[in-house]
Each structure stands twice: as structure tokens, then as C-alpha cells.
Amino acid sequence: MLNRIAEKFGELARKRECALVCYVVAGYPTTKTSRQVIDALVKGGTDVIEIGIPFSDPIADGPTIQAASNSALKQGITPEKALQLAKSIRKKYPTLPLLAMTYSNILVHAGVEKFMGQAKSCGIDGFILPDMPIEEAEAYSAAASKLGLATVFLASPNTPGTRLQKIVDSTTGFLYLVSVFGTTGARKSFEDYTLNAVKNVKQATGDKVPVAVGFGISTPAHVKFMRRAGADAVIVGSAIIERMAKSSGKKMSKEVDEFAKSMKKACRMP
User: Fold this and answer.
1) What are the E-state strand segments in 10-97?
2) What are 242-266's pLDDT values in tens digits?
3) Dihedral sign of CA atoms 188, 192, 198, 201 in order
4) CA torsion sign, 226 to 18 to 130 to 86?
5) Which domain holds residue 229?
6) What are phi and psi of 212, to 5 degrees?
7) What is the pTM of this model?
8) Residue 270 is assigned to a structural domain of this protein
């Protein structure tokens, strides 16, 4: 399936670059600010944007993203408004890969195929559903395949080999490797088990699908660590939201832009 995600990863592989995937919570602190932050991230060199559709019980998210999601919900963000945000971003950036990251209940409540169809029409290229187990994903995967949407499944450092293979076989776009045990959130360093997990998953995926590592990545040194371990992409979320929480307006956009530039620089092979 050659959509914008596959095209971007192919382009970066030829350049020997790691992809920078950045996460933004739709509607945090306002929809207008979400657009401004995405503009700053794209200007800074971000390769793929994840638009988080807030959900009331985000089990995979740490305190930073939970707080941002709760704030957006209080401001009146809805899944439909989040898709309209995606539509406006798609209009401005025709070739930018866009993913929706949310939870299964959002799709089930609206009707899985119906919601995915709406997302597709708004320019979304694929979905990340942290609470979608591979064993229950047949209908979801079938609907995504029918619409030409990527299904990004998650694996963790302790995912057994047989289950990992099922995930590899069902994943399109890229495989999302959770770098640490626990929830999202910026951290100071990573353990050896993360390094081993990246190597093991890369061995399992081979050339089938790229591997993106997320949860806790917040500095250029983290990016270099993951890249040297063999990651094809790094995913950054909480570190962006923390910068948004401490600033606003043009100053915030400048800080996000500069942060993205520093992270993307680390994605390039020496």
C-alpha cells in the first residue's frame, strides 16, 4: 500500500535519514493553536504528524498528554472537529503524512468503517489505536485495507516473539515500538532493554515495515540512541506539549520550530 506514509519512509530511506514523527493533541489548548503548532513542526522539518483525537480515558498516555486531552475536551473538541482540523492541515500540506491517534471506542461509537471513511475524506492516511489488540482487529484492519488506510499497531519490549510476528504481519505504515514499560512522558535516559527491544523488533520486521520508536523521546541524544539501535523513526509527543504549556503565541511557535529542527538534525545519519 503506497500512500503518503510509505512514500515518505521510502524517501527518507534513500537519504539514510530517520523519520521524525510528531504528535499534537487536537484542540489543545485551542484548535487555532493546534494549527499553529503543526505549522511550526512542519517548518522545523517534521516528516509525519500524528493528530491525537482526545478521549476521556487515554490509558496509554502519561500525565502530560492526559492533561492536554482533558483540557481539549473541556474546550469542546470532538472527533468530528478533530477531523476538520486534519482537513485544514491536508489542504495546506498536500503531501504531509497524517495519522490519527485515538482509542477504539471513538471508532466503535461512530461506526468503525463510517468514521474511518470520514477520516480518509479529511486527509488522514492511517490510524494508531493503542488499545486495539491484534487478536480483535480483523474488522478494523479489513475496513482500513478497503479504504487504503495504514494500521499502525504497537509492540512493547516484552512482546513475545509469536505475538510480535502477528503484529508485524498486520501492521501497515510502520510498527510503533513502545520504548519503555509504562505510559508516555518525557524522560532523561533509556535502559539497555530498550536498545535490545529495537534490535529484536528490527530483526522481526526485516524489510516488511519500518519501525518507529516512541514514549519518552525528548532530546536529540535520545534520537541518536534510537537511530543507532536501528530505528527507522522516532515519535515525539509529550516534549512538544510541555513546550506548549510553558509558552504561547509567536514565542511558542518559535520554540516548537527550533525544537523540531534540533530533533530532525539528530535524525540525519552522520
Assistant:
1) 19-25, 48-52
2) 999 998 899 999 999 999 999 999 9
3) negative
4) positive
5) 4-265
6) -110, 135
7) 0.93
8) no
